Amino acid sequence: MCGVARAGRVEVKLDGSRATRNRARVLIVDDSATIRSILRAVISADPRLEVAGEARDAYEARGLIKALDLDLVTLDIEMPRMNGLAFLERLMRLRPMPVVVISTRTRDNSADAIRALSLGAVDCVDVSRLQVEFGVRRRLVETLVAAGGATVQASGTVSEQPGAGGGGAAPAFDWNGAAVFIGSSTGGVDALERVLAPFPADCPPTLIAQHMPAAFLQSFARRLDATLAPAVAIAGDRDPLRAGRIHLAGGGGHHLTVVSGPPSTRLLPAGPGDIHVPTIDLLLHSAAALRGRAVGVILTGMGRDGAEGLLAMRQAGAQTLAQSGETCVIDGMPRAARDLGAVTRNVPLDRLGAEILSLCRSERVLPT
After folding, report:
1. 4-147: which CATH number, 3.40.50.80, 2.60.120.10, 3.40.50.2300, 3.40.50.10490?
2. Which of 40, 152, 171, 277 is most buried, with most CB under 10 Å away?
3. Nearest Cα to 223, choosing from 353, 121, 349, 111?
4. For residue 158, what pLDDT band results from cuts at 50, 70 and 90?
5. pTM assigned to the model
6. Annotated catalytic residue within 110, 118, 185, 324
7. Do domains 4-147 and 179-359 have the same CATH topology?
8. Is 185 a catalytic residue?
9. Catalytic residue among 211, 247, 255, 285
10. pLDDT tens by residue, 6-20
11. Which CATH class is domain 179-359?
């Protein structure tokens, strides 16, 4: 039986189906009449969605959000009177609800896309590709359907001051030698920032696979490196796993894996039929070779990528954690892992960082 979350004022099952009505109600917010027309046509063509209203700027949107019974919002970034990011920040603080950002700025300025995702946007779509590629339209529809079932909480963004996660005189982290492997997708930017915030400068080596275009991943790595105490970078080939290093899979046609003896990263070329680049399953399957000297973590996301890899890690003796369903934006990947029996413990998002660190401290003796 699937879980149930609250999105707006509509009860929504986490597989995307609705308990109280058949279609998710969408508000389109964009100052371009042409883009609003395109979005209206794409949304209205799917029986699971309906356009509840349209707004030309943030001020019109604010009034319609108060007046209409909505499930989600599509939001442009460049708009008159108030920037879309400023509006998103206020919305997530005062009236959190699912938002999908649709803008040319997600292509031309990937830092804006990462900022939007960090503020709590469910996803970002390049509107220029939407106009010419049918596959992008199909992906947008599926994203909107899933967003209608997303659990969105008040924004809790990480400080943007360099080194915010660390502090200056923290005691040395007493590391037991375990490495950390994390997979995330929809909602993962905000989730990862919250999980990694308590990591000290000498944290356990951490490898992350986040579903995201390569340009976004580069911006995300720079953002994390500026806001966290440990060093964060896109993973290279044959990087040794050392304390104080967080390696982010860079996509761009390659998957991130790890090899043992001594542990180091390996980049493998993606195949033409690969759905996700980077893929979480491949990373976690490779981490199973470290046996009990690894901690596997599955965070929020659609689909089931990572579930089988996490199971392989657990069967090999690793500790395996999943973000609890009620704290996920989309409880797809964690639920798939739970259903397989891959999860040692389910942990709420605000406790995951501390739980990971506790498994990597010297008081937890690792198997020889």
Report:
1. 3.40.50.2300
2. 152
3. 111
4. very low
5. 0.87
6. 185
7. yes
8. yes
9. 211
10. 333 233 333 333 445
11. alpha beta
